[in-house]
Phosphocarrier protein
Amino acid sequence: MVSSKFTINNAQGLHMRPAGILTNALKGFDSEVSIIKDGEVVNAKSIMNVMAACIKFGAEIEVQCDGTDEQAALDKFTELVASGFGEA
């Protein structure tokens, strides 16, 4: 398992559009990808779970990836955060 911490810098947080970009990008990986926010663990491949987590601007989250392509999945998540999910 690999993990990393992130701060969400999108002005609107992970609303519908960036959540959709995130979940679509992660569905191509075999590994399980989880987002941990305030002790709550959600499946990062589920748009409904990501939306329900209410991840807002400035939120600090941890992402855990576990599986055969875990590092590639974490690298993709890192890339998406750095790009502002296409909004920055």
Q: What stands out?
A: The mean pLDDT is 95. The radius of gyration is 11 Å.
